[in-house]
Amino acid sequence: MKTIFQKIIDKEEPADFVYEDENLIVIKSKFPASAIHWLIIPKKLVVSVAEASNDDAEIIGQMNLLAAKLAKDHNIKDFKLIFNAGKFLHVPHLHLHLIAGPEVTD
């Protein structure tokens, strides 16, 4: 069964895209925690960062580098990057949250 993220990647479900390349998509969160809440998602299925292997190191690095590039390109100076795992992972498809805005706290 496909996750919602796989359906978005396959263009079977709509999403508000911020970015897409051959390996990654970035969409706006449907449940934003702040003014800017983007999800950086690999097109390759990795269930979670807790289940990632050495084979996934490159894509995880690409996700982090893309987050930094998007922040710079959108003049976002203060932001958080968050990977969730276990009970905090609501969709079993690796994704990195980029969260920014005046309401974000430490």
Task: Quickly describe the structure.
The protein has helices at 4-9, 57-73; strands at residues 17-20, 24-28, 36-42, 80-83, 96-100. The chain is of the alpha+beta class.
Question: Quick check: average pLDDT?
Answer: 95
What can be said about the biggest beta sheet?
A: 5 strands, antiparallel
The gross shape turns out to be globular
Q: Helical element count? A: 2
Strand content: 15-25%
**Radius of gyration from the alpha-carbon trace, in angstroms:** 13 Å
Strand tally, please? 5
Helix content: 10-25%
Placed side by side, the strands forming the largest sheet appear as: 1-2-3-5-4
| Intertermini distance | 37 Å
Q: What are the segments in which pLDDT stays under 50 over at least 5 consecutive residues? A: none
- Structural class by secondary-structure content: alpha+beta
Order of helices and strands: HEEEHEE
What does it look like?
- This protein is of the alpha+beta class.
- It is built from two helices and five strands.
- The protein has helices spanning 4-9, 57-73; strands at 17-20, 24-28, 36-42, 80-83, 96-100.
- Strands 1-2-3-5-4 form a five-stranded antiparallel beta sheet, covered by helices on one side.
- β1 and β2 form a beta hairpin.
- The protein is globular, with a radius of gyration of 13 Å.
- The N and C termini lie far apart (37 Å).
- The mean pLDDT is 95.
